[in-house]
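Quick review question:
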């Protein structure tokens, strides 16, 4: 089986492109992510193996919805265009591909280790407050410079792009750091 978890940002769930969708549509999206996460390759394809797609009846059964609800949801996902691509694509063999599946995967370099947790716990309140203030100023500057993109500071003191739910890398922050100082 695949990894037991995948990432989902509350900002995306509560205010993302599916925020106004029917509850069933939202639930089906989360279950499709979970199904893709359980595949052997964890590549965003809903299949047993290449060329052996999950059937629609299997997907509906796994999502615990009727076929009509599944088809309506899949239609919404195919018409939900973000970054120039629909949320899902269907291959000729019927395999459904979640085009933005990679956004829901933790990157190995970002995996939190026990040492990371200990380090975060050791941050004094003053250090944390100072870092939070600095990150907040940087986020404010980023939002001023790039008004189409909104950034927030997470509880883990990571800068998150609230449109995509992606954590902004240190390299990306460094580009704008001089403007905040």
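Suggested answer, residue by residue:
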């Amino acid at each position: 089986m695949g990894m037991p978890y995948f990432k989902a940002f509350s900002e995306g769930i509560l205010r993302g492109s599916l925020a106004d969708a029917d509850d069933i549509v939202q639930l089906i999206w989360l279950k499709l992510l979970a199904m893709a996460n359980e595949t052997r390759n964890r590549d965003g394809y809903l299949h047993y193996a290449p060329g052996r797609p999950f059937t629609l009846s299997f997907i509906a059964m796994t999502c615990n919805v009727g076929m009509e609800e599944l088809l309506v949801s899949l239609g919404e996902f195919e018409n939900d265009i973000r970054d120039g691509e629909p949320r899902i694509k269907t291959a000729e063999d019927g395999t459904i591909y979640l085009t933005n599946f990679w956004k829901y995967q933790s990157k190995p370099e970002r995996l939190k280790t026990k040492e990371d947790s200990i380090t975060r716990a050791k941050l004094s309140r003053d250090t944390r407050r100072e870092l939070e203030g600095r990150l907040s100023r940087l986020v404010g500057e980023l939002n001023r410079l790039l008004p189409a993109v909104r950034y927030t500071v997470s509880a883990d003191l990571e800068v998150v792009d609230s449109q995509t739910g992606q954590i902004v890398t240190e390299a990306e922050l460094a580009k704008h750091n001089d403007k905040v100082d």
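Why it works: The chain has a mean pLDDT of 77. Helices lie at 10-15, 23-38, 56-63, 67-79, 114-122, 125-145, 170-180.
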